[in-house]
């Protein structure tokens, strides 16, 4: 038994999540049979918020790992550390999740090296076990444990992709930016701005998304729209808010910035002070 308190990893309050289909029911069904789940979709479209929401709804602890290219297998499963009494084993987040029955969410998993991600293999098939070779221990996963991974297919390459031996251990769900009306509703709620202003932000984003593959790797995400809306709610003029939150983060190319600024000017031709929610 683990002496770690699972409650520290619980999502205490309900996250705002606006469903766009039957993704909640699909995920709940997958969790009921403890199927590992892979979420695919562009940056900032709501994958992480969805996992957080489902952890809250299912009342399960959630341990999130932001994957990166320097992450090693030991960062996931654990390592021996020196202390005043000699050496002490410290569980990694994957091991902790397996012991306490948490959902372990590996965010942007393709950023991790392939020799790192293979450590999840025995946890994502019928064995549901995690060998701790350095410690000489075989951890049997808690009955409530589940692995969830996410990645952006738009960033895939031959050097950054999941092995088929990894992919075929998961059920998969595809995410995308919501329909315009739904996305505007989300931006309005999250940023605290009126719906009309949110709709204009979404229109700017749609222009940018049409430029994907034509000078932009990605269009403006829902997350960036929320950032812009939050600045507007703090009385930053809309053009300046869009410049800071939408245009500058997206590209360093001067010509492309001019193109995006033109889209902003199209939908925010005048500075108004009526966009904050009363």
TrEMBL record:
Gene3D superfamilies named among the record's database cross-references: P-loop containing nucleotide triphosphate hydrolases
PANTHER family noted in UniProt: DENITRIFICATION REGULATORY PROTEIN NIRQ (PTHR42759:SF7), MOXR FAMILY PROTEIN (PTHR42759)
Protein name: CbbQ/NirQ/NorQ/GpvN family protein
Family listed: Belongs to the CbbQ/NirQ/NorQ/GpvN family.
Keyword ATP-binding listed: yes
Entry coiled-coil feature ranges: none
Domain CbbQ/NirQ/NorQ C-terminal: 183-266
Domain ATPase dynein-related AAA: 36-170
UniProt source species: Thioclava electrotropha
Keywords: ATP-binding, Nucleotide-binding
Pfam families: AAA_5, CbbQ_C
């Amino acid at each position: 038994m683990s002496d770690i308190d699972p409650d520290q990893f619980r999502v205490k309050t309900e996250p705002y999540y606006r469903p766009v289909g039957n993704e909640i029911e699909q995920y709940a069904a997958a969790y009921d049979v403890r199927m590992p789940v892979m979420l695919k979709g562009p940056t900032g479209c709501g994958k992480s918020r969805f996992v957080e929401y489902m952890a809250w709804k299912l009342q399960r602890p959630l341990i999130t790992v932001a994957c990166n290219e320097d992450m090693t297998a030991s960062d996931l499963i654990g390592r021996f550390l020196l202390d005043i009494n000699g050496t002490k084993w410290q569980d990694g987040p994957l091991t902790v999740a397996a012991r306490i029955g948490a959902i372990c969410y590996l965010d942007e998993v393709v950023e991790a090296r392939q020799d790192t991600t293979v450590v999840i293999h025995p946890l994502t098939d019928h064995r549901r076990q995690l060998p701790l070779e350095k410690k000489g221990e075989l951890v049997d996963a808690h009955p409530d444990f589940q692995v969830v991974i996410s990645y952006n297919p738009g960033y895939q390459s031959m050097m950054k992709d999941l092995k088929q031996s990894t992919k075929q251990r998961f059920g998969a769900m595809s995410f995308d930016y919501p329909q315009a009306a739904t996305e505007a509703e989300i931006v309005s709620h999250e940023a605290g701005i009126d719906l009309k202003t949110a709709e204009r932000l979404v229109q700017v984003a749609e222009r940018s998304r049409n430029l994907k593959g034509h000078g932009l790797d990605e269009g403006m995400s829902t997350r960036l729209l929320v950032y812009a809306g939050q600045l507007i709610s703090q009385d930053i003029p809309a053009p300046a808010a869009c410049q800071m939150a939408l245009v500058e983060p997206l590209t360093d190319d001067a010509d492309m910035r001019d193109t995006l600024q033109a889209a902003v000017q199209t939908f925010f031709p005048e500075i108004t002070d009526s966009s904050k929610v009363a």
